[in-house]
Design goal:
155 residues, mainly alpha, Helix Hairpins, 2 domains
Length: 155
């Protein structure tokens, strides 16, 4: 994904350790984890933030390094089962909020050509991601416009 709008190479990141079982020091019950995930979602946290909170704060004081290993389900799957998932996926919502911020900046600073290009690239990513999710995660008739993005993020 790093090479989408530039000729530069992406930077390499770290990989998660290749393991298929939860460490013995983290023996939290799967049902407790699921209830905590739903509780955090109802407080308005995104799936990525929920994962960080479970890693750092844990459930009943015991850290959960990997929800998928502990429960055999991803955080988004747990949220879908309990009808606590968001209307639009987190990555699409983040891109839309970025596009809104860029658009508002462009209205005040029309001469900022660098941000104009950043806005074009961001909106391109949104349309590409919307095509991926259309019909499955988002409505079949969804089309990205600035007005639609503002409306979706106000909900």
């Amino acid at each position: 994904m790093a090479r989408m709008h530039t000729r530069r190479r992406g930077s390499s990141g770290s990989d998660k350790p290749a393991t298929d079982e939860t460490p013995e020091w983290s023996d939290v019950d799967a049902e407790d984890i699921e209830s905590r995930v739903v509780e955090l979602a109802e407080q308005g946290h995104d799936p990525s933030v929920i994962g960080l909170k479970l890693r750092d704060e844990g459930v009943k004081g015991v850290p959960v390094p990997d929800v998928k290993l502990a429960t055999d389900k991803k955080i988004t799957e747990i949220l879908e089962e309990h009808d606590a998932d968001a209307d639009i996926p987190e990555d699409l919502r983040n891109l839309m909020s970025q596009a809104i911020r860029l658009r508002e900046h462009m209205e005040e600073n029309g001469q900022d050509h660098q941000n104009k290009r950043a806005l074009q690239n961001t909106e391109s990513k949104i349309r590409r991601l919307a095509n991926y999710y259309r019909g499955d995660e988002i409505d079949e008739e969804f089309t990205y416009t600035y007005e639609n993005a503002v409306e979706y993020l106000e909900e």
